[in-house]
Amino acid sequence: MLPYFPAPYPDELLYSLLARYHRHTCTVSPKRTLDDLFGSRSVRATIDLPRHLGALSRHLPPDRALTPERLALEFTLFPYLTAYQPPAVVANVLMALIGGEAGGLHLRLGIAASTVSSPTTLRYCTACDTEALDRWGECYWRRTHQLPGVLVCPSHGVPLADSGVAPSLGHQHEFIAAGNRTIESRASPPWEGNERCRAILLEVAIRSAALLCVVPQGIIPADLTARYRRALIDRHLASAGGRVDQKRLHDAFNTTFGPARSALPEIAETNWLSSIVRKHRHAFHALHHVLFGLFLDRYVPIPGADSSVSRRLVATPDFINRLRNLVSQGEGLRAAARALDVDTNTVRRHATKLGLPTPWRPLVHPQPRAKEDPGPAIRMRWLELQRREPQLGRKALAGHLPAEHAWLYRHDRAWLDTHSPVPTIRPPPMACVDWPTIDLCLAAGLREAAEAIIPLAPPVRVTLAELERRLGRPGWIGKRRTKLPETLTMLAFVMESTESFQIRRVAWARNVLEQSGEPAPAWKVRRLARLPDRISDKVQQALSIIEPHNGNPAPCR
Ligand SMILES: [Zn+2]
């Protein structure tokens, strides 16, 4: 069981959490970190679907409450990648993530065969980084930014930047933490400045991000096919019988997404579109479903352009009489349509409405729409308003979107809490202070202060008093211990015992003597390290080690 594990940040990727653990513990060997975390040195550092979550969970401090299921749902791309999969696949993949069962995950999800390519390097948003630095004192990798097809930050609407960190190409057993970078110059994507393109990419990003916030329940492929078919019939892109007009569908899709064609290959190449509206013979990538759902919402049929719409007005008494006669004469569907100069769907619809005994199949009315989960759309509106009005606090946001706020408050309060602005920290009165946020910020501050103390020469001991002094809050933490659990955990982790400080001084003293070219016998080291007369066995041991290396502590990255 690990004595320390970092507190996760909102939307943080598991890869990032493990990378921060590696950095915070100043472990030099990546394999050692794997051993600490998983009890195995052969685990791969994976971004999208990391496995062995069961073993990882068993090693983490229990007060973090990071169960294997929670790790999968809140810190991996599992909810996104399984959002449109059958229930059996969802369960199967979850089991594989927990148990570490080898291979085949991407194949099972239809990702391996899909034309959608996952990003090869970890990506980040400079605005998110700046906020994280201000708030937590360090940057981290976010899940949302690593989703395929997400090219802009859903919170800030700015293009994502490539970090160059590519775990799949080398570094397979190493977790690399996000750098604490300030805004750096980078090449602009060719579509930057194209506002219509950016708007489409932002919607794709918001919808994709929303999938990460929903627990995947599994969807029966036949239900999905039926749902898509009904949507196309409603938009006059399929006949009442469900026959899809592929040409019009592709034209409509290209018109709707035209401005973003050059930015997103999945929009330019639409082979998948023909098959996603047919019976699903294989799994589709979540990005294809996201794009199709967005298309259905954005596409507005042009009134009059559709024959079945324009000819709805022909049901005059004369038309009805002629239809009755044709049916009684036993005319076929096509012949009747030709004689009446309308399309076959119109003939079928009116004959069914009049209850005529036709030689052709009567029109079966499509089933009414199943009630859809309003959650994704509500979450999207909540995030979108925050993006548009970043200065608004939670109360003001709720004033703008009262129904959405009420729904989220009732149905998904945890999500609402993590996806709403954190109240600004004000000085007293203490009654309205947000302790959890102060706690996390303070813990981050302690770690930074400790990292600043360690390289000092001559060495300074990392004590509560020294840390408080550096944070400009002497005596502050000691009086508020009960309100600061994260801070206390961090404190226990960074504070030095007398013994470990003495060992560090011994290493420093030996290094100083060696650097000056003097011999470094134990008595000299002891004097320079200012050790007391009585020292513990471990310090004695450190003193008697004769080794040529410089005694610097392991460098923190
Ligand atoms: Zn951002």
User: Number of helix segments?
Assistant: 28
End-to-end C-alpha gap: 24 Å
Report the structural category. mainly alpha
Number of strands: 2
Largest sheet: 2 strands, antiparallel
Uncertain runs = 304-311, 548-557
> Percent range for helical residues?
40-55%
Order of helices and strands: HHHHHHHEHEHHHHHHHHHHHHHHHHHHHH
Short summary:
The chain is an all-alpha fold and 557 residues long. The C terminus is likely disordered. Zinc ion binds next to helix 8.
Keyword list:
single chain; 557 residues; mainly alpha; 1% strand; binds zinc ion
Give the SSE layout.
Blueprint: H1 14-24, H2 30-38, H3 53-59, H4 68-75, H5 78-81, H6 87-99, H7 105-108, E1 123-124, H8 126-136, E2 161-162, H9 195-212, H10 221-234, H11 246-257, H12 265-268, H13 271-276, H14 286-298, H15 307-310, H16 317-328, H17 333-340, H18 344-354, H19 375-388, H20 394-400, H21 402-411, H22 413-418, H23 435-453, H24 464-470, H25 485-494, H26 498-515, H27 522-528, H28 537-544
Helix pairs in contact: 3-4, 9-14, 9-19, 17-18, 19-21, 20-21, 23-25, 26-27, 26-28
This protein binds zinc ion.
Kindly describe this structure:
The chain is mostly helical and 557 residues long. It contains 28 helices and 2 strands. It has helices spanning 14-24, 30-38, 53-59, 68-75, 78-81, 87-99, 105-108, 126-136, 195-212, 221-234, 246-257, 265-268, 271-276, 286-298, 307-310, 317-328, 333-340, 344-354, 375-388, 394-400, 402-411, 413-418, 435-453, 464-470, 485-494, 498-515, 522-528, 537-544; strands at residues 123-124, 161-162. Strands 1-2 form a two-stranded antiparallel ribbon. The longest helix is centred in the last third of the chain and has 19 residues, at 435-453. The chain is elongated. The model is unreliable at 304-311 and 548-557 (pLDDT under 50). It binds zinc ion. Zinc ion (ZN) is lined by residues 125, 127-128, 153, 155-156.
